[in-house]
Amino acid sequence: MTPFVLLGRFFIEFVKEIGGVFILLYRFIQVLPKTFSNIKNILVQMETIGIGSVPLVIVTSLFVGAVTSIQAAYQFQGYVPLRFLGTVVGKSVILELGPVLTALVVGGRVSASIAAELGTMKVTEQIDAMEMIAIDPVEFLVLPRIIAATIMLPVLTIFSDLLAILGGMVVARISMGVSYNLFTAGLKLLFESQDLIGGLMKTFVFGFLIALMGCYNGFVTKGGAEGVGIATMRAVVSSCLLILISNYLLATLIFRIIFAPSY
Q1: What CA–CA distances, in Å, run from 66 to 61, 94, 166?
Q2: DSSP 8-state class, residue 79
Q3: The dihedral of CA 78, 166, 255, 244: what is its sign?
Q4: pLDDT greater than 70 at residue 1
Q5: H helix intervals, 124-223
């Protein structure tokens, strides 16, 4: 098989996947007006996605803040006073580390869970059975998960930001002798509300993409238990890649256009 044939097959499969995602997205938009009739399912998914991810977010955030503080202090040695340590930790966490790492960690858990659940329903023909009795699987399965993930990821990110800054503050006090007052003063020094707003704006998109990739890969699962495993892996990989790609695009849009500095 020639490289051109392999490249052609890859391109066809890629276009097929993109088309499948947009078809699911179109069907989601069609059932979006029925959101309020699915409040109960949405609340259940919000608990599963949000509350279930809290322990993971706690551990991740504390250590992210701690290592950010240590690395910043190391870079400051002999060049920058440690009173700016809180500034660097706060800016780093709020702008990038909090939103992106929370999305990656939660996305791996949530997209895998959604893909495995829906993939199992697909290979056991439960989704086909729903369609046979006139229940729209997109409305019943996809809508609550996407709405819940879109709502809960910003909430988790706020929680993550607070814990990461707290972790950085504690490590700065224990390891570098920076007092809490000095760290807090540095934190307030260059804080701007648009930094927090911009970081949270990105997380709405991240949450949407995480759930969308989980639902899509679950819906196209085939091949029994092995297929469920493959769908789960594809959901995690695709959601993480889309988070990183969209992070660049959103950062450009938000901080270079919407909140562009005026000179």
Answers
A1: 8, 14, 8
A2: T
A3: positive
A4: no
A5: 126-132, 137, 143-175, 180-189, 193-219
